[in-house]
Amino acid sequence: MNKNFTLLVSLILTFLITKTTQAQSWEVYDTKIQLQSRLIYDEIDLLSETVRIGKAGNELSLLSSDLRPAVSLVGTEIYQYLEPWIIVKGPKGIGAFHEYGQQVLPLEYDKIDTYFNMLLASKGNEYWLFQRGFNKTTYLGELDEAKITNTGLIIIRKGTEYSMPLSPNPDKTFELLSDNNGEFVLAKEASGFGLINREGNYVMDPIIETMQHTHGNFYYGFNQDQYLLIEGNDIKSNIRYNSFHKITFENDIMLEYIHGKLRRVMEDDGILLDDVGMTAVNKIGQDLYNVHFRDARIGLLGKKGWLVKPMLEVDEIKFGNEGLFPAKSKGAFGFVNASGAWVIKPQYAETTLFSEKMAAYRTTQNWGLIRSSGELVSDASWEEIKPFQKGLAIAKANGKYFLLNTFGAALNTEGFDNIYRTTDGYFMVEKSGKSGLLDSEANEVIPAEFEKLRRERKNFVIVQKDGLTGVINEAGEVILPLAYEKILVDWANEQIFTKNKYVPTVIQLSEEPGKKNKKGA
After folding, report:
1. Span of the secretion signal (predicted)?
2. What is the rounded CA–CA span in Å between residue 432 and residue 141?
């Protein structure tokens, strides 16, 4: 055999072996653990039911339905997936592909924001806008700021001037364009404030002297000696309430004063409470207010009226649950009902909300349990007690975690380093750096002996031990052996991906001296 030919073959085999030993092999099973295919990728990412990414060496690919490379994504890693956009990172920056495979922005930008079929990309102080409907990228210029509003408008700022390049008047400038969590942009011109809809048209002309956003599509304003509560509308915005009396808006509370005296608590579009004798209103949560009166009564006001009617001998009333509200009097907490009567007298340093007719109380440092009837369930001996769910609570003592029943008894005699409740009522537990699983009644399902544990669904638990990953059921029976680097599950397509080290099989051919290989051998 020709020595040069032998050397060439040897070099090719060496190159191929080096390349393949750096890669990884993946096996794809169905949910009945029947092998479907074998793949060679370093990594596989399942971004959605239809978007799968494969990486082999420096090649990043969008995979077809049969998991073959379909579109090269050019870059080195997936930066972000913002359906339907795949943001890809490369040596020079980030770019974007549509999940169908079309590259819409090269990998050279610092930042990309998305809104359905629009992408706003920036590089330094330069901005570009891609619109899929027109399949084109528009250069917006060097700007101080550019953003996509939550309704899909583009707002840009250069110096002190604002404009909307996609509006019916792209060259029109404003003193201010302010986005908010509503559906309308607050605009300011020399003539005043107005509101602009998602099409870029005024639905309230810019004539209001002062205006600011409150919540949703509501705004607070002042014009021609009148205080205004305004609601945005796609056709024409409405003034829902107007008054010559002073309305303040501070600390997210709107109050109306008549002849200098507090008279009304306002909501976004009108009056929430009209009562005489009010002296102060404190916001304690979303749409929750403690209202103070001159006669020392305090009530808890909600979006639909009184949650707790004004009562005496109380300093503070908190949001409640199951018809009982934590309330403070002379430095101690108890519980009141909606009528403003004490159900559990103030005697605790702190309380939690009732959950399943059980609440935790704190005396000095530690916590105990009480029932909604006021019955003492357990003494204050716990560092922490979390709310009851389905008859069990997670509690902490001496740095260890336990499960408590409704009698205050610990169901596990030996504490765990941590306990996490799963969405279906099971409990992930940690002990000495290992993980295990308890069922909804605190019985051990899987002992705490795994480095990692993830319960995908009933009787399908992905576990890791000694650096290898497998799948077991809740009886501890092996579904897939602990022999893999990684396991991914795509339940929508009923596929399980297992990652292995790939070791190629090398076949060495020998030739007897003096003989030539037959043709076709």
Report:
1. 1-25
2. 57
Rounded to an integer, the average pLDDT of 202-211 is 98
d(CA 265, CA 273): 5
Sheet containing 210-213, strands listed edge to edge, beginning at the edge strand earlier in sequence: 210-213, 218-223, 226-231, 238-243
- H or E, element range at 484: strand 478-484
462 lies in some domain: yes
- Asked whether residue 475 is domain-assigned, the answer is yes
Helix, strand, coil shares of the chain, percent, nearest 5, are 5, 55, 40
Residue 22 has pLDDT above 70, yes or no: no
Q: Give the 3-state secondary structure of residue 13.
A: helix
pLDDT at 8 over 50: no
Give CA separation, 302 vs 213, 266, 308, 309, 427, in Å.
Answer: 21, 12, 9, 11, 35
Q: Using CB atoms within 10 A of its CB, is residue 354 exposed (0-12), middle (13-18) or buried (19+)?
A: buried
Does position 514 have pLDDT exceeding 90, yes or no?
A: no
Report which secondary-structure segment, H or E, holds 5: helix 3-22
Determine the structural domain holding residue 445 and report its residue range.
Answer: 416-504
Query: Strand 478-484 relative to strand 35-40: parallel, antiparallel, unpaired?
Result: unpaired
226 forms beta bridges with 223
The pTM of the full predicted model, rounded to 2 decimals, is 0.86
For the chain, how many structural domains are there in total?
1
What is the DSSP pairing of strand 486-490 with strand 246-250?
unpaired
Side by side, which strands form the sheet with 103-109? 77-82, 85-90, 93-98, 103-109
End-to-end CA distance of the chain: 14
Q: How far is CA 18 from CA 43, 61, 503, in A?
A: 18, 21, 10
In a domain, 183, yes or no: no
Phi, psi of 405, deg, nearest 5: -95, 180
- CA R_g for the chain: 33
* Residue 474 is assigned to a structural domain of this protein: yes
Question: How far apart (Å, rounded) are the C-alpha atoms in residues 264 and 423?
Answer: 43
221 has a pLDDT exceeding 60: yes
